Amino acid sequence: MAVENNTRKLDKGIVRDFSSRMSYASYLQLPTLLSAQQPVSSPEHHDEMLFIIQHQTTELWLKLVLHELQSAAEHLRADNLGSALKEIARVKHIQKTLTEQWSVLATLTPTEYAQFRDFLGNSSGFQSSQYRAVEFVLGNKNRKMLPVFESDPEAHEQLRLLLEAPSIYDEFLAYLHRQGFDIPESVLNRDVTHAHEFSPELIPVFKHIYENAVDNWGAYEACEELVDLEDNFQLWRFRHLRTVQRTIGMKTGTGGSTGAAFLQKALELTFFPELFAVRTEIGK
């Protein structure tokens, strides 16, 4: 049916009365969600709304990333590799969105940010418990991060539990062991409260998987999915660093860190070092 007068007619079946029905707004709790943007600058600075929404949406995506990664770890424990890879694939799409999102914040100029930055006090993205939780799930454990969250018992407990739980890489290596791959006992029984460190004994295992991909397709595909996951995470870290440099230069962070210099060090951290190191050995 053609549109007349540049106005679309509503279908007769469209529901209009929500006095006793669940609506879009009530299902998503939009009144609560959309009232959560409360600028603290005085007088209120126009660009603070951008700053708040940027970080709130990041936290929502991080919540979903955690939801998917923890489920993927459970599937690996149950030897359900296909379902784990499906969830990791979803995380990769979320990571792309998170990385592209930095370009929106990068429209905030140094002059604009300086006009409301002091109102933030010591609040900082460094204090994102969900970001630390994602790092813990992926294997970058650091017990020294926990005291930052002592004033938030729920976040502190979540991080404590994740610190003491196997990472998704630990679960993947245990899965490979159950599938008959020669994973060293020192790796299987490591102290999971510490960050995973490079283990040269794993290189022959991954070399065999890569050089015999047809016979080990599930393991091979999982290795590449994890490589994608780390690549994407490092891209996010890099875009974070560059956005900070673009906005505040080399100033100290609001949370007390050295700012860009501290973020630069994060680029040296790794989740799955053997999956990158094995590339040097393939074909030798």
Structure commentary:
Helix content is 57%, strand content 0%. It is mostly helical and 284 residues long. It has helices at 24-27, 30-34, 48-77, 81-105, 110-114, 129-138, 153-164, 168-178, 185-188, 203-211, 217-248, 260-266, 273-281. The model has no long low-confidence stretch (mean pLDDT 95). It is built from 13 helices and no strands. The radius of gyration is 23 Å and the shape is globular.
Outline the fold blueprint.
Layout: H1 24-27, H2 30-34, H3 48-77, H4 81-105, H5 110-114, H6 129-138, H7 153-164, H8 168-178, H9 185-188, H10 203-211, H11 217-248, H12 260-266, H13 273-281
Helix proportion? 55-70%
Biggest sheet features: none
Average predicted confidence as pLDDT:
95
The gyration radius over C-alpha positions equals 23 Å
Backbone structural class = mainly alpha
Tell me the number of helical segments per DSSP (H or I, 4 or more residues long): 13
Concise structural overview:
The chain is an all-alpha fold.
What would the keywords be for this entry?
mainly alpha; 0% strand; globular
